[in-house]
Amino acid sequence: MSFKEKKIISMVGIFALFFGIYPVANAMHIMEGYLPATYCVIWGVICLPFLVAGYLSIKKKVEVNRSAITMYAMAGAFIFILSSLKIPSVTGSCSHMTGTGLGAILFGPTAVSILGLIVLIFQAILLAHGGLTTLGANTFSMAIAGPFVTYGIYILCKRLNVNKHVGVFLAAALGDLFTYMVTSFQLAIAYPSEAGGVMASGLKFLAVFAPTQLPLAVIEGILTVVIMITLESYASNELIGLGVLERGEAS
Known about the structure:
The chain is mainly alpha-helical.
């Protein structure tokens, strides 16, 4: 392991230790048993093609560049840390940063589906966050929908020649917000309002999430920019290998 890789792992460890003192008891994604069984199965099936594509994407990158394993581990740790910091809402879910934006920018959105799934399994089993029955729904909202929007916004900003770090901020923040739009939709179709149906129910869930999720999305955008700047300084060769950084941009 190179000196730069050790530095990256050390920084992630310090980051985790700092936030590890934050109380997370009784916080979760869509909780165990909250969705009807039919919806649990449907969301799980929808996730399958994305997970297959994610596995193949990771396999291909690792075969070409073994050092990418360190970057995958770092991105997975970032997702685990941020998505474990919960601010409870009054619904059957909660507000929290997702951390998936960084992985989507580094590896593309499909690879993040695998990283997100692993994180959600660990959280469900070890931390009682989310659940195994709701794993498909949580994976789709946090590890598939959000990362695809993040990646799309990041690429769009690059093509429009938006400042690189501004693009990273917008991509991570808006991807976070889209995750909660999808979560609200998932809850709404499972529990439509008697007056107004799915649309009214979805708006109610969004209204509950918004006060906490809007500032959290901004914070996640800023944190993602900070991590990217750090990687550009200490792991520029790895970013060049992933195609995130051009050789002339390395600091």
